[in-house]
Amino acid sequence: MRLSTSTLPMLPARIRRPAFDRAAVRTGIVHLGGGAFHRAHQAVVLDDPLAPRLRALAAAAGPVAARLVPVLIGVRELFGEDLPRDPRFRAAVETALDRLLARGVRRTLAGRPAG
After folding, report:
1. Within 13 Å of residue 82, how many CA atoms lie on the same side as its CB?
2. pLDDT tens across 39-64, in order?
3. Residue 81: CA atoms inside 13 Å, Cβ hemisphere, count?
4. DSSP class of residue 113?
5. Model-level pTM?
6. What stretches pass through the bilayer (predicted)?
7. Which of 37, 55, 68, 76 has the most other CB atoms within 10 Å of its CB?
């Protein structure tokens, strides 16, 4: 089964559900990773302990990629020690976030290569 809003009711009772109204959520995190398996496991990590911290960091930095990227990739629990220091990684994330902020989610995803 693919994890989605529509499949949440089909999950076994022992699996926790999001403790917030998913329909009220606005874009607040960019997923850079390996597919549905990663997203399913990332949900447990991000929905609970880091969500308030990430929201506060993003609000303080504002919607400008040059300010937001260093703050977010500085979260060790997500990016570790080495990745934030890699200028190629920082540049790639900043470019992707600039595009996302300028175009919005739908136009950004529509312009990505298939695969």
Report:
1. 0
2. 555 555 555 677 888 889 999 999 89
3. 0
4. P
5. 0.55
6. none
7. 68
